Amino acid sequence: MLALLGTLAGCAVVPDAKPPSTIIDPPPPTVVAQSAFAAGLAVGPGVGTLGFSRPDANSALSAFVASCRWLTSKDDRSGLTRPEDWQPACDAARTWPASRGADFFLQHFETARIGDGAAFATGYFEPEIEGSRTKLPGYDVPVYRVPDDLVRAWPDDMPEAERTGRPPLGRINEEGKHVPYFDRAAIEDGALAGRGLEFAWAKDPIEMFFLQIQGSGLLRQPDGTVMRIGYAGQNGRGYTGIGGVMRERGLLGDGPGQYEGSMQGIIRYLRENPEDGRALMRLNQSWIFFRELTTDGPLGSLGVPVRRESSVAVDPRFVPYGAPVFLDLDRDVADGLWIAQDTGGAIKGANRFDTFWGNGGDAREIAGGMSGRGQALVLLPKGTVARLQAAKAGQ
């Protein structure tokens, strides 16, 4: 989201929220409300006034159709909608002409502004790096599947009253106690080696570090074939954005000796300062475990492939998974219709988004430098806003 480093298989949600997929650091969270309903919403402008392009609407329609299974069967954490609210639009979408997406959104949706609508958007992408299914000379960075000793349990010393929500991830040590799982440094030093968890190997540890942050990616093998890997789990350790650390240390900026505050600038620093760079990456104790994917794109939180310039990561407490979102930002490349199909560890709060830019070509450049501010609108089935406002008034 996927902050410069802030996504997310089958038909179920991934075991845990993906890591942040963004590299540009997000602003400090200021949201107090814990859902869109609590944050408040207002009627937005008519869909016909938004001015999105036909190609934009057509690609959004395709992504929306892929989201309908979720929309019509899963509870909405934002408190805005019910599965039955989406049924008419989803029924229509299945047979709607693919070239008339704008008419579809105009006929079936209204807009709502969550809170003040002030949006902040970053970007994520699907990196392609050199890798191999087997360990070859020069391919030394292991790609691990989820280890069987990664478990959720309450620490023995945690009082019963504090045991709320899901137990933390960790492992059972030799004394039979639940302790935090191995962190990045321990795993890099071989804590998981020799257990048969490796199912692929990468060539470049820096590229693999950033692929972990994105949550999925492509391994280009020596014979030219491509292997897609996707997020399968996380070690339970906290995520630290190295871009923020570098900024605090005065390493990023426009001054003499500083590096550009983008993914490209961060990578250049890591390559030019290998020892300090390795220590810096280890400050991010989070480690991502993967699985091989046979889909035609990386999977988002809905279990469907995310699409370039159509899929966006959201905080599902404020935007219903599968809902269309309209962004109008100071980064024009991100303006238009998006479908909420993913989430990420740094994507927190109302109107916080992480836009997906696919793989190859300019994807890394756009996503790595994406930091847009402006306004956001959520598109909801017609009649939803009036129902919600009546419910709010009756409280």
Structure characterization notes:
The protein has 11 helices and 19 strands. With 395 residues, it is of the alpha+beta class. It has a 6-stranded mixed beta barrel. It folds into 2 domains: 4-124 and 303-393, RlpA-like domain (Barwin-like endoglucanases, Beta Barrel), CATH 2.40.40; 128-241 and 284-293, Barwin-like endoglucanases (Ribosomal Protein L25, Chain P). Helix 2 packs across helix 3 (83-93). The longest helix has 18 residues, at 54-71. GO terms for molecular function: hydrolase activity, hydrolyzing O-glycosyl compounds; peptidoglycan lytic transglycosylase activity.
- What is the topology, as strand order, of the major beta sheet? 5-18-15-17-16-19
Low-confidence stretches: 1-17
What does the average pLDDT come to?
Answer: 89
Taken in chain order, the helices and strands follow as EEHEHHHEEEEEEEHEHEEHHHEEEEEHEH
Structural class: alpha+beta
Q: Could you please say which CATH topology of the largest domain applies here? A: Barwin-like endoglucanases
The helix count comes to: 11
Number of strands: 19
Tell me the count of domains.
2
Main sheet summary: 6 strands, mixed, barrel
- The first-to-last residue Cα distance is 35 Å
Instruction: Name the CATH architecture of the largest domain.
Output: Beta Barrel
Rg from C-alpha positions? Answer: 21 Å
Indicate the percent of residues in helices: 10-25%
Assigned CATH superfamily of the largest domain: RlpA-like domain
Shape: globular
Question: Regarding CATH, which class of the largest domain?
Answer: Mainly Beta
Give the strand content: 15-25%
GO molecular function, one term: hydrolase activity, hydrolyzing O-glycosyl compounds
Keywords: Cell wall biogenesis/degradation, Lyase
Protein name: peptidoglycan lytic exotransglycosylase
GO biological process, one term: cell wall organization
